[in-house]
Design a protein that fits this description.
There is one protein chain. The chain is of the alpha/beta class. The chain is built from ten helices and five strands, in the order ααααβββαβααβααα. Strands 3-2-1-4-5 form a five-stranded mixed beta sheet, sandwiched between helices. The radius of gyration is 22 Å and the shape is globular.
């Protein structure tokens, strides 16, 4: 036709991506994160440099049958019927403004073919990053202690509040002793009032919908192999969190820690 080859491949800047190409990009994201809704898919497309409206993403996801509904299940993991000391709620209406200000702790279950496996975890109340966890076959205090020890080994425990429910694992003598040894303030939700610990409950729901329900573990070994990978590689480093402005927890934490250090340096200059 007498035109340069480059003309065939040229795409105007700011042009609209064809539905076929956009659908392919959406499917790649949905393959890595099967339970992402259209809002998170849109946010990830924006992070990849694609200009697209969330309504268009929703339409294509409907056309490709990529929208899904979460399954629900429940098993009690909290035993607050004990005579151990229970502590008051210290985080009522508290909005964290930095990392390692509030840690949220809780325990959930993972169903396998013949029994259950239990996961104890702690997340940072500011960044929503999972900072410590432990896996076990029983709901013992040792399980919660393993998660706490893991978190303490990685994080700053100065001026910190540890928040949990009134479960026997978190009221146990050994657990409370460790918190007091590190000068960590102890906070607990009221009985049958889980709202103050909703942040970690949200993480558990994400874990089950996007990992556990997808793979239907059969053995304890499968749990030990898959759960650490999901927590460390997927949830902390890749999964977009709507509360964090559609950033992964680790990225959000790194950005805000740098800002905090920058502000401290600026203050030191002004003082001097």
């Amino acid at each position: 036709m007498g035109i340069p080859r480059s003309t065939y491949y040229y795409k105007p800047k700011g042009g609209k991506l064809p539905d076929m190409d956009l659908a392919e990009a959406i499917e790649k994201i949905a393959l890595d994160f099967p339970s992402y809704g259209y809002r998170r898919i849109t946010a990830e497309l924006h992070r990849q440099g694609l200009r697209v409206n969330h309504k268009r993403v929703l339409r294509l996801m409907r056309d490709k049958n990529l929208l899904c509904r979460a399954a629900k299940a429940f098993k009690a993991t909290t035993d607050s019927s004990h005579c151990l000391t229970k502590y008051p709620n210290l985080i009522d209406n508290l909005v964290p403004y930095r990392t390692d200000q509030v840690w949220h702790a809780d325990i959930t279950y993972i169903r396998i073919a013949t029994s259950f496996v239990y996961l104890a975890a702690l997340i940072d109340g500011f960044s929503r990053k999972v900072i410590g966890y432990g896996l076990g076959r029983t709901l013992s205090a040792d399980l919660a202690m393993a998660a706490l020890t893991d978190a303490i080994s990685k994080r700053n425990t100065g001026e910190l509040i540890h928040h949990s429910d009134q479960g026997i694992q978190y009221c146990s003598y050994d657990y409370v002793k460790v918190l007091k040894e590190y000068g960590i303030a102890i906070s607990m939700s009221g009985k049958a009032n889980p709202y103050d610990n909703a942040k970690i409950e949200s993480f558990f729901r994400t874990l089950k919908v996007e990992e556990i329900y997808m793979f239907e573990y059969e053995t304890y070994r499968e749990v030990l192999e898959r759960i650490p990978y999901f927590i460390e590689e997927v949830y902390n480093r890749k999964r977009l969190h709507s509360y964090l402005g559609y950033m992964p927890p680790e990225e959000f934490e790194n950005i805000n820690n740098k800002k905090m250090k920058g502000n401290e340096s600026h203050q030191l200059v002004l003082i001097s």
